[in-house]
Amino acid sequence: MANFHYAPIQSGIVTSTLLDFQNKAADKVRADFGFQSRVRWSLENKQSYITSLILGMAPSKFIFASTKLCANTNNIPDKDYYNDWNENKKVDYLNIDSNNRVTTIAEYWKNEFGIEEGFYDIDDTIVEIIKGTNDTYNTLPLVVKERLNTAAITLEIIHSASRNQLSQLFIRLNDGITLNGPEKRNAIISKFADEIRKLATKHETYLRHFFAPKDINRRKVDDFIAGLAMIYFHGVKVTISEKTFQAAYKSESTEDNSVDKFVTFIGKFFKFIGKKIKTIPNKNTVLDLFVIYKQLTDDRFVIEDKKKFFEDFFKVNAKLLTDTTKHEYNDGRDATYKELLRSREVRFNTLRHKLIIDAGFNPESYAIERDSRRTFTKEDKFVSAVESDFMTAEGKEIDPTKLFDVREYQGGHIQPWSKGGKTNQDNCVIQTAEDNRILGAKPVE
Fold first, then answer.
1. What residues make up the domain containing 415?
2. Residue 422: its pLDDT value, please?
3. Where are the beta strands (DSSP E) in 80-151?
4. pLDDT digits (tens, 9 = 90+) for 28-87
5. Is the distance from CB of 7 to CB of 161 less than 8 angstroms?
6. Last residue in a domain, options 369, 387, 416
7. Residue where a domain terminates, one of 337, 369, 401
8. Structurally, how many domains does the chain consist of?
């Protein structure tokens, strides 16, 4: 069993009125989504909380970490972490356990919703709150607004804690209460966790129509992308479960050390699908496409006829969705193709993939195979330079003494390698490094 080092955080308690907090501190408080949850309260939750503040029935303390005070540490990564928030992002406090509350208060101050309607007994005065009439902050009756402004809140300010301690504090505060699996994993400190979170934010627009807003707020998009990462690293036969996720999210895991490759790959994948993702009715069909795209890439194929690829893929899926045939996925258990889309369980994933291929969809028929060799040899470059009288494809004179310096000159593919061009003498030209970079995946003219 691992021997963990435990150390207490240091903090202090202060009290404030709600109005003072809003005027003096609220704009300088931010949530670090590296461990904190996104807002997931419903309108009813928000209305109930503001009403509770008015009635003095919201005693839970706010827990913040002072970025300035916590930066006073000899641990360089922690010092850099807090200084980045304090000096670069101008954030005085990191919100550890009250993001829903702080965000709800800010929204109410901006009149974005109204409190619960009904009769409020304030200082021996009965005030009726009517929806759409006097329920927002600006329209509140004076006696109610004064009670809200002077509502007392308790703040625990952490002034000495490492980044890891903040993460562990957040998990312990929520352990066994409200956090789901994706939210707990998000609080783990690792590069894999950081990149999955960034990818979810970046590619949410591609995936949001598969998830309800409350599921997006509870990191279900993160969870889906993490599942694609498991397939990227281990293939379609991987078991996507809490156990395998926990292993992947650990610092220095295989996935953690190689996550940059997945980031690049999934960017290409979403670019490949583009707006066609809006036509797909089920998120696990996106997973099926990811499996196909990954296998093609691994086998050095690049899809040439993208239009036909999607036309036929959609036709096959439409046919399978209307097929009532039952397919056995476990001993004594079977399901239609449509029913198989309800889960990303390994038996479902592998069976769906088989059914798509067996239905006549051959991914390689829409692709061309890339040359297994990506770069030209020195001999290839030498021959091309001689045959061109030491002139680049763009007509620039080649310095023979720097021909093999990749910072100066590079072998370019006349027909791009990414489009199936061969890495052989006939397809080789010399370009300056800058011209080769600018050309990208375009053919040399």
1. 378-439
2. 87
3. 93-95, 118-122, 125-129
4. 999 887 766 666 678 888 998 899 899 888 777 898 999 999 999 888 988 999 999 999
5. no
6. 369
7. 369
8. 3
Of residues 185, 193, 242, the one with CA closest to residue 218: 185
Give residue 38's pLDDT.
64
Mention every residue, 6+ apart, whose C-beta is less than 8 A from residue 250.
188, 190, 256
Contacts of 234 (CB under 8 A, 6+ apart): none
Say if CB 135 and CB 118 are below 8 A apart: no
Q: Which residues of the chain have pLDDT under 70?
A: 1-7, 35-40, 171-179, 187
**Which residue in 420, 280, 269, 296 sits closest to 362, CA to CA?**
296
**Residue 107: alpha-carbon gap to chain centroid:** 25
Q: What pLDDT score does 96 carry?
A: 85
Q: Examine residue 434 and state whether it is found in any structural domain, yes or no.
A: yes
Q: Give the separation between CA 86 and CA 80, rounded to whole angstroms.
A: 10
Does an H or E element contain 31, and which? Answer: strand 29-31
> For position 39, what pLDDT does the model report?
61
Average pLDDT taken over every residue of the chain: 88
Q: Tell me the DSSP string of 339-386.
A: HHTT---HHHHHHHHHHHHHTT--GGGGEEEPPS--S--HHHHHHHHH
Reported as a single tens digit per residue, the pLDDT across 101-112 is: 999 999 999 999
How far from the centroid of its chain's Cα atoms is residue 411's Cα? 37
Q: Residue 5 domain-assigned?
A: no
Please give the model's pTM, rounded to 2 decimal places: 0.59
Token match 């004594």: residue? 332
Distance CA 281, CA 322 (A): 14
Q: What is the pLDDT of residue 61?
A: 86
Q: CA-to-CA distance for 200 and 208, rounded, in angstroms?
A: 10
Q: What is the rounded distance in angstroms from the CA atom of residue 144 to the CA atom of residue 111?
A: 15
Residue pair 97/170 in contact (Cβ under 8 Å)? The answer is: yes
Torsion of CA 244, 39, 211, 200, to 10 degrees: -50
> Using CA of residue 388, residue 394, residue 395, residue 398, what is the dihedral sign?
negative
Residue 362 CB contacts under 8 Å (≥ 6 apart), including other chains: none
Residue 3: the pLDDT is 47
Q: Give the contacts of 368 (CB within 8 A, at least 6 positions apart).
A: 301, 302, 304, 419, 420
In a domain, 185, yes or no: no
**In the numeric block, which tokens belong to residue 290?**
């990811």
Amino acid letter for position 193: A
Residue 183 CA to residue 247 CA, distance in Å, equals 16
Q: Which residue matches tokens 């109005």?
A: 19
